[in-house]
């Protein structure tokens, strides 16, 4: 026998030994593999974990759990049963049972030996009666699960909801099984991996007749469920509830942020989903989804609204940074700004001319038209494309035109035009500042979410930087993402924010007759600084806008209020914001008549 033949024989022997050893290990030694391979000899009873709690910044429970009961069925174990008795227990029709059984037969290969949900969230009384009579229903069983409970009557759109997994979801997420629940929106979705916990199971043996006998190996292979982790949010539960109270019968949103940390204190979308319906969302889903007021649509992070006059602050800061104006610059206002010899962008009556801070205080349209013209027609730039791109860079540095990167899953980035936007509409070189003059007052092709506007208020409060707004403060055994602690500096020098703050302070705290547009937001001793906005709305009355922060030095809260179809920002949005500021900073309200009026007024068209 030559050397090559010997090598070949030795190789074959080695391969055979490896195969035999592996088969021995799998079939004789590795009991866990045997359990898995001979699945049909065992019944796996799932033990569902308790979902993690959601707490507010003060340790109050926002979302907890309560017992819920599902009726399960293992199709392979089904035998003839008393259908009428089952229907009586759960007040269901025989046709429902027949359709379910037919569906199990149709999908028997896919279901295999699994248990699937027959009825969800039955009452405790029904569950008790079923357990007493369970011998009548071979193949059926009951399982206790936890369902969400809400101590505060607020926050449904913020917390989100859980729902049973769909077949489409299971195809993409094989670690879940039929009958499992998953976070579908809000914080429940964002932090699903943290909140869900880990399922356990008990393995029961079957005999040759497919009857359930006893736990396998006395329960040695059972696995305990691991509860989900609790998360501590940045939300103030009392403030969230109070804000929703003020926003009832209104379409819009409120966002409040702690400027120094970027922590979101409240995030309100109105009208929202009723908290009483969210725990059993499947029952009310069609009703909610067909509501013309779209309660499932979270306006705080998904609506790209025109910011209106609050955007004048942004243009003013850019003008100061670019050196096309100073704090002392004055411009005339004769009822508005003539951007062509015959066309005027109108303004309300006020004294004229004004310096920079007083232009913010009185919200002069003409002043900021001159500012935008100076920015875009700055001779330091070769053409409009170049100057407009520079303008856009400044605006983007303040968080606009992009997602801020919050931990809320549905956040949108809004809209911010580019030079190419106008080149496509008007042709390159065929447009100028007068063509886009509406941008000077926050109209035109710009769209911002209320979260963007609250972030602007926080940026001004911080004199030039913001920390990415976020909703979760801490998670056990986890570190908060770095982007929620890092300062994002704007392209504007911090020294230019002082005259802006002065103008916002005067807008709220000026004496009667001096022209401040936000005096309804004044609260003695709180030094609220704010800016009103009234954004044009093609679908009805103007939208009311207001941003503010307080106190002036070392601010503790920044707020944006946006109310659709309400009219002037100083009339509606400013009082709501000031009540929220007062509630947060003092815990009391000194203007109960205003509070009652704001809460009870219906502004839904």
UniProtKB/TrEMBL annotation:
Residues 47-214 form the Penicillin-binding protein dimerisation domain. Its main location: membrane. The keyword Transmembrane helix applies. Pfam families: PBP_dimer, Transpeptidase. One of its GO terms (molecular function) is penicillin binding. GO terms for biological process: cell wall organization; peptidoglycan biosynthetic process; regulation of cell shape. Residues 252-581 form the Penicillin-binding protein transpeptidase domain. GO terms for cellular component: plasma membrane. The chain crosses the membrane at residues 7-29. It is a single-pass membrane protein. InterPro entries: Beta-lactam/transpept, Beta-lactam/transpept-like, PBP_dimer, PBP_dimer_sf, PCN-bd_Tpept. It is found in: Cell membrane; Membrane. Keywords: Carboxypeptidase, Cell membrane, Cell shape, Cell wall biogenesis/degradation, Hydrolase, Membrane, Peptidoglycan synthesis, Protease, Transmembrane, Transmembrane helix. SUPFAM superfamilies: beta-lactamase/transpeptidase-like (SSF56601), Penicillin binding protein dimerisation domain (SSF56519). This is Penicillin-binding protein 2. It comes from Candidatus Egerieousia excrementavium.
């Amino acid at each position: 026998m030559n050397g090559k033949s010997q090598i070949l024989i030795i190789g074959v022997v080695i391969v055979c030994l490896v195969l035999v050893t592996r088969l021995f290990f799998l079939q004789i030694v590795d009991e866990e593999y045997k359990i898995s391979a001979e699945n049909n000899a065992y019944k796996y009873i799932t033990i569902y974990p308790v979902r993690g709690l959601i707490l507010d910044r003060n340790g109050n429970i926002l979302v907890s759990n309560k017992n819920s009961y599902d009726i399960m069925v293992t199709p392979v174990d089904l035998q003839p049963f008393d259908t009428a008795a089952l229907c009586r227990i759960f007040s269901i029709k025989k046709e429902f049972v027949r359709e379910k059984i037919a569906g199990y037969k149709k999908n028997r290969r896919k279901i295999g030996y699994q248990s699937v949900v027959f009825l969800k969230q039955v009452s405790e009384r029904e569950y008790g009666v079923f357990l007493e009579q369970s011998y009548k229903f071979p193949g059926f069983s009951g399982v206790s699960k936890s369902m969400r409970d809400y101590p505060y009557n607020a926050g449904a759109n913020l917390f989100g909801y859980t729902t049973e997994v769909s077949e489409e979801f299971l195809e993409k997420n094989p670690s879940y099984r039929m009958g499992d629940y998953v976070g579908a929106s809000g914080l429940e979705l964002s932090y699903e991996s943290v909140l869900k916990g880990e399922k356990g199971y008990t393995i029961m043996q079957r005999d040759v007749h497919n009857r359930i006998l006893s736990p396998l190996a006395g329960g040695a292979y059972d696995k305990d469920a691991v509860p989900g982790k609790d998360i501590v949010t940045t939300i103030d539960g009392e403030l969230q509830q109070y804000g929703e109270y003020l926003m009832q019968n209104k379409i819009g949103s409120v966002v409040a942020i702690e400027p120094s940390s970027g922590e979101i204190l409240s995030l309100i979308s109105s009208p929202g989903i009723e908290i009483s319906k969210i725990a059993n969302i499947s029952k009310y889903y069609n009703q909610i989804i067909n509501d013309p007021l779209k309660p499932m649509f979270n306006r705080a992070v998904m609506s790209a609204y025109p910011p209106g006059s609050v955007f004048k602050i942004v243009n003013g800061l850019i003008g100061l940074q670019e050196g096309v104006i100073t704090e002392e610059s004055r411009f005339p206002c004769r009822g508005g700004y003539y951007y062509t010899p015959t066309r005027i962008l109108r303004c309300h009556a006020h004294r004229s001319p004004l310096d920079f801070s007083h232009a913010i205080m009185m919200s002069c349209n003409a002043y900021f038209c001159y500012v935008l013209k100076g920015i875009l027609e700055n001779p330091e730039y070769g053409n409009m494309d170049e100057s407009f791109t520079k303008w856009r860079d400044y605006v983007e540095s303040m968080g606009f035109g992009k997602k801020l990167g919050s931990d809320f899953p549905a956040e949108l980035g809004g809209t911010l035009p580019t030079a190419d936007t106008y080149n496509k509409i008007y042709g390159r070189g065929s447009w100028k500042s007068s063509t886009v003059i509406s941008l000077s007052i926050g109209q035109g092709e710009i769209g911002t979410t209320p979260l963007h506007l609250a972030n602007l208020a926080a940026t001004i409060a911080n004199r030039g930087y913001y920390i990415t707004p976020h909703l979760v403060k801490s998670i056990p055994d986890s570190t908060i993402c770095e982007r929620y602690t890092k300062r994002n500096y704007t392209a504007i020098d911090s020294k230019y924010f002082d005259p802006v703050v002065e103008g916002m302070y005067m807008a709220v705290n000026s004496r009667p007759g001096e022209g401040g547009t936000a005096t309804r937001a004044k609260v003695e001793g709180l030094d609220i600084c704010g800016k009103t906005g009234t954004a044009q709305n093609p679908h009805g009355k103007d939208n009311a806008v207001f941003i503010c922060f307080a106190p002036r030095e070392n601010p503790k809260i920044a707020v944006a209020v946006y109310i659709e179809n309400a009219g002037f920002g100083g009339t509606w949005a400013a009082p709501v914001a000031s009540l929220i500021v007062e509630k947060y900073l003092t815990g009391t309200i000194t203007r109960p008549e205003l509070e009652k009026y704001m809460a009870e007024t219906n502004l839904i068209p």
